[in-house]
Amino acid sequence: MPGGAQHTRRQLLRLASAGALWAPLRAAPLLSFTCRDEQLSVEAPSLHFLGGRVGDRLQNGLSVGVEIQILLSTEPRGAAVRRGLERFLVSYDLWEERFAVAPVNRELRPVTHLSAPQAEAWCLDHVLVPVSGMEGNRPYWVRLDIRAEEAKEVARGSEQAFDIATLVDLFARRSPDRQMKWSAEAGPIRLAALPRPAEGRRR
User: Fold this and answer.
1) What local confidence, expressed as pLDDT, does residue 179 receive?
2) Within the chain, where are the H helices?
């Protein structure tokens, strides 16, 4: 298929407002999938979770915690049989007009000097679902959940002004009035039919 990605036959976007910081999406993102190192990877180039009110807070000197979860199930909206979860702290350099991302996962390296689409893609690219041992020709459904929440103010222009402990505490407290949520579900997909790019996890 074009672009080397399998597009699903059916896609569903569900938006659930969680307070005044809600950032709506106008259209359902087109999800596509690849499998590398026996792990499922999701792409959603039409989903811009660092824009709107999230972008406004970043440009006002606030950092934003982003939690991304990918759930794999055997039926639409079914119980997850596999999942991948990562958390990130995103900030914006007003002088450089670029984004920086610090992952909670210490195996991943912080990245800087990214555009908004690059930062969004980098975050998604590093949320992987292990699929080793799963049936390749069985139909599965994939759900993408993204949650963003305003964190504390960071020093403007500082690329290293990240507080990972703050981010962990941020999501543990789950303040509904400060959260923004996006959710999309797609399927069915078959793991055996997915493109398999060169092995090796991106960093």
Assistant:
1) 64
2) 52-59, 116-125, 164-173
Please report whether residue 200 resides in a domain.
no
pTM: 0.74
Task: Flag whether 203 is in a domain.
Answer: no
For residues 8 and 182, which has the higher predicted lDDT (pLDDT)?
Answer: 182
Buried b (16+ CB within 10 A) or exposed e, 116-140: beebbbbbbebbbbebeebeeeeeb
Asked if the structure places residue 76 within a domain, the reply is: yes
Q: Which range marks the domain in which residue 70 is found? A: 2-23+32-191
State residue 180's pLDDT score.
80
CA–CA distance, 11 with 187 (Å, rounded to integer) = 7
Is 55 or 21 the better-scoring residue by pLDDT? 55
Would 143 be classed as within a structural domain?
A: yes
Q: How far is CA 160 from CA 55, 74, 104, 110, 163, in A?
A: 19, 41, 14, 9, 9
Secondary structure, 3-state, 12-43: EEECCCCCCCCCCCCCCCCCEEEEECCEEEEE
The pLDDT assigned to 107 comes to 78
Instruction: Give yes or no for residue 113 having a pLDDT over 60.
Output: yes
Domains of the chain: total: 1
